[in-house]
Design goal:
The complex is a heterotrimer of chains A (364), B (274) and C (302).
Chain A lengths: L1 H29 L1 H5 L2 E8 L3 H19 L3 E8 L1 H10 L5 E3 L3 H9 L19 E10 L9 H4 L6 E2 L7 H19 L11 H20 L8 H9 L6 E5 H11 L4 E4 L3 E5 L3 E3 L1 H7 L2 H10 L3 H9 L3 E2 L7 H4 L6 E3 L1 H5 L2 H9 L4 H5 L3
Parallel strand pairs in A: 1-2, 1-3, 5-6, 8-11
Antiparallel strand pairs in A: 3-9, 4-6, 4-7, 4-8, 4-10
Helix pairs in contact in A: 3-13, 4-5, 7-8, 9-10
Chain B lengths: L1 H4 L8 H28 L3 H8 L2 H34 L5 H7 L2 H4 L2 H12 L6 H6 L8 H26 L2 H9 L4 H30 L2 H6 L8 H10 L3 H33 L1
Chain C lengths: L24 H30 L4 H9 L1 H34 L5 H13 L2 H12 L6 H6 L8 H11 L3 H13 L2 H8 L4 H30 L2 H7 L9 H10 L3 H34 L3 H6 L3
Classes of the chains: A alpha/beta (364), B mainly alpha (274), C mainly alpha (302).
Chain lengths: 364, 274, 302
């Protein structure tokens, strides 16, 4: 009896260990390409880029192999933009980051000292190889008649947008709405910097704040990320209108059926510039600078731009991109974050820091 | 040292097992946890206080503790009925039901989360009839309470079952022979005897629900249904380590207090049974 | 309890209870209906939903989701993590139970409370403490970076967080069990000349083996299913640092509901196996306890 008990226990432990070790060995064998890769990159990105980078990685790997004879493997990590930046600061060894907002990469430079502060000038187009904007997604037939930002502030409309505290996309949504109201009041963003217009500007800012507060009063649920918000709207049937990345809206329509959803472009929206950067500290340590740099530069090639367009991102260099891909992007007036808010650092401090405008309007 | 700590015993291995226990406990639990305390010690008292009295933090603590209180109460009531039925009656499928009780223990919280969301969302099996009644479950505080109830259920049932089984039939018979009705006997005799176990189960369910993260975040949106663990994660994502640690410390102190209370309760109930 | 009576046709009180100490048939039925209804609504509906959603896109999609390389690597990582965390916590649990149950010493209650502590700590905090310790700006971060040791955002961090979460499971099962058994058997064995190790293997272990296995089963279920703590320390690198629960979340966030539920159903099957094992072990240990202890004392004489 005693021996039996020991045997059962020992057998259990051995099986556990064997499974564990056998599995890890198996892992190497199964991931044959992985084991043979000469160099690996880790691309730490935000939520909606999964599908795009999956395809882009394959194209880049094939191109790099043909040119340099080196087998590359690109590992992907996705999550909320802020959360991903936090992981990188805490030690996630990203060779490159492709995040939702410049502010998050600024944090990597400021808090982590992982790359120089002038990172944005190191690649063309302010390090944003593709852009996007904020649009609306509504149920087929647009039953609530949503046309523009004003409709989101109407009482009785239910708006789905993620939490700006955690989601980069949600901050773009918030600023797009704010900018719309500012533009409507002031007529022209240039007046923001005109000392003579200080009075009207203050009044316009107050109106914009009331307008955004009215929209957020209509938000029944805030997910922590853009992806979560989309599935809340699409799969869980919540809300009348989803405020979303244009690429996310296009993807949702493709994946989940254009017979259920409709894209509505507002009259004016924000130009979202998701930036990319090489993390100097990591690539220097791992000796991957050349391939990391080439990886990001490949985003600017006609092939990279075409893939971006295919996944719903507006290409910066539309010249080589087929016309039918360009047709999916509605024409609308776009303003930049510098136009309306004087850059990310100022926008963050004025709207999303603890105690700033978002906290004030969303007080529970 | 050893002889002073330990009463003389013929059994060997005290030094070895105690040493290993203390070392492993320190490495895995105590040292990492003390890192948390150290980190929050770098905050000044006013900064700590203003962090934990932020509106958002207070609202989330209210939801976490309030929701857990409701969930534990629901579990105490229904858990009592379930334990009673399982111990006192024989019916077809009793064993199956008995085995199923532990499902929330065994089911990974992420799975519980997506499953509860699928069931209680406005498009789900139970969400649709509820929505027809004008009740929205998923993405509201109600959804949070549902998830908390789910994870806490086994605690009440499992602490009550042995106590009910050990209960002496004679005291009930005595009550009956003295002319007490069934309900009177229940309130006057059974309930006091079961109270320690019921409270223990309640406290265990409560403490599990307060800290629950995985199953709640899927069914809860954020902001209006933000629970305290989610605030910690959110603060982390904003690089606010000090803030995250402050909220974590409040929760840690609360759970340690709860745990201590539970241990006292259990000793009380053991003494009652002895 | 007579198990045969469990399958009687209607709801009855257990045998040997007088009429005065049970309720009327109507009340009995009502209570059973309430209990079963509550459980159906709260426990069974979500479980069934997992499988219904998993097969909603057909068997082919279900299988495809499971043999996906990322899913396989998540399964492997989960097995690896459980394969390390569970044995270590088992050894700890047995050692701690031996020290606590067989000896008296100062501060025993505090020690028991400390062992229980991880159960009361929110999983998110369990992850956070390792970030504070091993993160780049954490207490040990700079030293680890200088020596190129990766803990956070790699398998070691996930294993550590899992060990923390499942720390008390085996110890909690064994401490009351060994306390109830007392030290008489072991002292008798020692008196008969057995060495300490022999005493443990031949007397103690047979007495507690079902308890140990029970603890292992619970520990394993939690180790494989942990989400909150692991999510904080994982780094979410596809095909590398995603465990099965994290993979479920990723698929869920990719509009890949059917695949998410397919992987989730694998975890649900694990949960069901856990429940079956648990029931069997409870039954076994109840039988072991019903037997007199003399048999084990005699065996030592060999």
């Amino acid at each position: 009896m005693g021996g039996n008990g020991v045997r059962i226990l020992a057998a259990g432990l051995v099986v556990g260990m064997a499974l564990a070790t056998g599995c890890s060995r198996n892992d190497e064998a199964a991931g044959g390409a992985a084991a043979r890769a000469d160099v690996t990159l880790l691309n730490v990105s935000y939520d909606p880029t999964r599908e795009f980078y999956k395809e882009f990685n394959e194209a880049f790997i094939a191109g790099w192999k043909a040119k340099n004879g080196q087998a590359v493997r690109v590992r992907q990590s996705h999550g909320g933009s802020g959360k991903q930046a936090r992981s990188v600061i805490d030690g996630l060894e990203a060779d490159v980051v492709t995040l939702a907002l410049a502010y998050d990469i600024d944090e990597l430079a400021d808090k982590g000292g992982l790359l120089p502060k002038d990172w944005q000038s190191r690649l063309p187009e302010r390090s944003a190889p593709y852009t996007s904007t904020i649009v609306f997604l509504v149920r087929k037939g647009n039953p609530r008649g949503v046309k523009d930002w004003d409709d989101l502030a109407r009482p009785g409309i239910s708006v789905i947008t993620p939490n700006p505290k955690t989601s980069g996309g949600a901050r773009w949504n918030y600023l797009a709405a704010w900018g719309y109201a500012l533009k409507k009041e002031l007529g022209d963003f240039s007046r923001l910097n005109d000392p003579a217009a200080a009075g009207p500007v203050a009044a316009a800012q107050a109106k914009a704040r009331a307008f955004v507060a009215a929209i957020y009063k209509n938000v029944p649920v805030m997910d922590s990320g853009a992806r979560g918000a989309t599935s809340t709207f699409v799969q869980r049937g919540m809300g009348d209108v989803l405020v979303a990345w244009e690429n996310e809206a296009l993807l949702a329509m493709r994946e989940l059926g254009p017979d259920k959803l409709e894209l509505v472009a507002p009259s004016i929206s924000i130009l979202a510039e998701p930036p990319v950067a090489v993390i100097d500290k990591v690539v220097d340590k791992r000796g991957t600078r050349a391939v990391a740099q080439a990886y990001l530069e490949y985003l600017y090639t006609p092939e990279g731009q075409r893939l971006a367009a295919q996944h719903g991102y507006r290409p910066r260099r539309a010249a080589g991109v087929p016309e039918e891909l360009m047709k999916q992007f509605p024409n609308l007036e776009l303003f930049t974050i510098d136009d309306g808010f004087g850059g990310w650092a100022k926008a963050q401090a004025a709207h999303f820091a603890d105690g700033a405008s978002f906290d004030a309007i969303s007080r529970p | 040292m050893k002889s002073r700590l330990q009463r003389r015993s013929v059994l060997p291995g005290f030094g070895l097992t105690m040493g290993f226990t203390l070392m492993y406990l320190s490495l895995i639990v105590l040292i990492p946890l003390s890192g948390l305390v150290l980190k929050s010690a770098t905050m000044t008292w006013p900064a700590f206080w203003s962090t934990i009295t932020e509106d958002r933090v207070l609202a989330s603590l209210r939801l976490s503790f309030g929701g857990a209180l409701i969930a534990a109460t629901v579990n105490a009531v229904f858990g009592f009925v379930v334990a009673w039925v399982l111990v006192r009656y024989r019916f077809p499928g009793r064993r199956l039901v008995d085995a199923l009780i532990d499902l929330p223990f065994a089911l990974p919280t992420a799975v519980s989360g997506i499953a509860l969301t699928a069931v209680y969302a406005p498009t789900g099996w139970l969400g649709r009839p509820l929505a027809a009644l004008g009740i929205q479950a998923a993405y509201t505080p109600l959804g949070v309470v549902i998830a908390m109830t789910f994870v806490g259920l086994p605690f009440v049932v499992r602490t009550l079952q042995p106590a009910l089984e050990d209960l002496d039939v004679e005291i009930e018979e005595a009550a009956a022979s003295l002319g007490a009705g069934r309900f009177q006997a229940f309130v006057r005799v059974l309930l006091p005897a079961l109270l320690p176990s019921l409270l223990t189960g309640f406290a265990l369910a409560f403490s599990r629900a307060v800290g629950e993260y995985g199953s709640v975040i899927f069914i809860a949106g954020t902001t209006k249904t933000e629970i305290a663990p989610l605030v910690i994660v959110t603060k982390l994502e904003q690089y606010d380590y000090a803030g995250a640690t402050a909220v974590a410390l409040v929760m840690l102190v609360a759970s340690f207090g709860l745990l201590f209370g539970i241990n006292l309760l259990q000793r009380w109930s053991r003494r009652q049974h002895a | 309890m007579a198990s045969a009576s469990a399958w009687m046709r209607s709801v009855t009180p257990p045998q040997g209870r007088s009429v005065a100490t049970t309720e009327s048939a109507a009340v009995r039925w009502l209570l059973v209906a309430v209990a079963v209804g509550f459980l159906l609504l709260f426990l069974l509906a979500p479980l069934v939903a997992v499988f219904a959603e998993a097969f909603s896109a057909g068997l082919g999609a279900f299988l495809a989701a499971l043999v996906d390389p990322d899913a396989l690597s998540a399964v492997c990582l989960t097995l690896l993590v459980a394969g390390i965390a569970v044995p270590l916590n088992t050894i700890f649990g047995i050692a701690a139970a031996w020290a606590i149950a067989k000896f008296n010493f100062f501060g025993k209650n505090l020690l028991v409370t400390l062992i229980d502590l991880p159960l009361a700590v929110s999983p998110v905090i369990s992850g956070l403490i390792y970030v504070l310790l091993f993160g780049r700006s954490g207490y040990l971060g700079p030293w680890l970076a200088a020596h190129d040791i990766k803990i956070l955002f790699a398998a070691p961090g996930i294993v550590l967080a899992t060990m923390f979460i499942t720390f008390p499971f085996v110890a909690r099962e064994l401490i009351p069990l060994m306390q109830a058994q007392g030290t008489d058997d072991e002292e008798a064995a020692r008196g008969l000349g057995a060495t300490g190790w022999q005493t443990f293997l031949r007397v103690t272990l047979p007495n507690i083996k079902w308890g140990v296995l029970y603890g292992i089963v619970l520990c394993n279920a939690r180790a494989m299913g942990e989400f909150g703590a692991v999510s904080v320390v994982s780094g979410h690198i596809r095909g590398e640092t995603n465990t099965m629960p994290l993979h479920v979340e990723i698929l869920y966030n990719e509009y890949n509901t059917a695949a998410a539920f397919a992987v989730a159903s694998l975890l649900a099957v694990l949960a069901l196996v856990t429940l079956v094992l648990k029931t069997v072990l409870e039954w076994k240990s109840a039988r072991a306890h019903a037997r007199p202890d003399i048999a084990t004392a005699e065996e030592v004489r060999v």
